[in-house]
From TrEMBL:
InterPro entries: PPM-type-like_dom_sf, PPM-type_phosphatase-like_dom. The lineage of its organism: Bacteria, Bacillati, Bacillota, Bacilli, Bacillales. This is PPM-type phosphatase domain-containing protein. Residues 23-245 form the PPM-type phosphatase domain. Pfam families: PP2C_2.
Length: 292
């Protein structure tokens, strides 16, 4: 089977939805000519920033990376394309007057990106965006690790304490701010997590690899906004439930299900979280018709 057959016969579903904040900091990557697909989740800097068009640093970072990957060709290296985007992000921050020595001021983005060819699935990943594959026997395989979960948990626990103290929303944010700052300082460090943020150290923490696509049925790419929400008693995200629901409902209907859960829990009492509704972005690639 050649690449052209794969291009003509795979099926793809993708969707992105803005959360409860002003703009969608997520971005989709659908490069059909290069068979490059991905999701990107921009992260707002602790020190707020907006450009003249109203874009936050997180949105700028996610769209910059998405543009790079949309334009890459078959011969380009996934890793090099991501690192080039990281270098350009650094230059853009310098030009915009950002103090790049302060990690809390950096524009950043998590991502999960794949490229499919006739025998291989290549991937690059950072932070908490995730890549999964499903085999024809039903086995689910994670190609990535949520590197941010433990740090988000610390912040959520702090926010629950603040809520129990009866603090207002603004007071809760101030109460959690030291923890948020500490978490950002762990970017691209041992004991921390990888994230595209313009730092040279990002190259040392970027995760990447390749698997063969023999018997791979589906590929899933998701930002953390698509994770099925955890209750206060849940220690881990139920990724199997997320994937099963995407298979049953499709990405758009699954997103609608998550949104309904959030609407029923506006104060994050059942599902503790840092915002009412996160941006939600996902891609599902079905290879069953490609003969893989």
């Amino acid at each position: 089977m050649g690449v052209n057959r794969l291009v003509s016969q795979y099926e793809l579903e993708s969707y992105t939805l803005k959360g409860s904040r002003e703009i969608n900091e997520d971005a989709l990557i659908v490069n059909k000519s290069g068979l490059v697909f991905g999701v990107v989740d921009g992260a707002t800097s602790v020190t707020p920033y907006k450009d003249v068009n109203g874009n936050t640093g997180g949105a700028i970072a996610s769209n910059l990376l998405a543009k790079h990957m949309e334009e890459m060709n078959d011969s380009s290296s996934l890793v090099e394309a991501v690192l080039q985007a990281n270098r350009e992000l650094r230059q853009l921050m310098v030009q915009s007057g950002i103090d790049i020595s302060d990690k809390t001021k950096l524009w950043s983005a998590a991502f999960a990106i794949v490229r499919v060819n006739q025998t291989k699935l290549e991937y690059v990943q950072a932070a908490d965006s995730m890549v999964f594959v499903k085999y024809i026997d039903g086995t689910i395989r994670a190609l990535s690790h949520d590197q941010v979960s433990s740090f988000d948990t610390l912040t959520i626990k702090k926010s629950l304490v603040a809520r129990d103290l009866g603090l207002s929303s603004d007071e809760q944010f101030s109460y959690c701010l030291p923890t948020i700052r500490d978490n950002r300082k762990k970017a691209n460090t041992l004991g921390g997590y990888s994230v595209l943020n313009g730092e040279e150290a990002f190259a040392d923490f970027l995760e990447y690899g390749a698997i063969n696509i023999s018997n791979v049925e589906r590929i899933y790419l998701v930002t953390d906004g698509l994770f099925y929400p955890k209750t206060i008693n849940d220690s881990h995200t139920d990724f199997m439930k997320m994937i099963n629901m995407i298979d049953q409902e499709g990405i758009l209907n699954y997103i609608n299900t998550l949104t309904s859960l959030e609407e029923l829990d506006p104060n994050a009492e059942v599902y503790p979280r840092l915002k009412k509704s996160d941006d939600k972005t996902g891609i599902m690639i079905d290879l069953r018709k490609a003969g893989c």
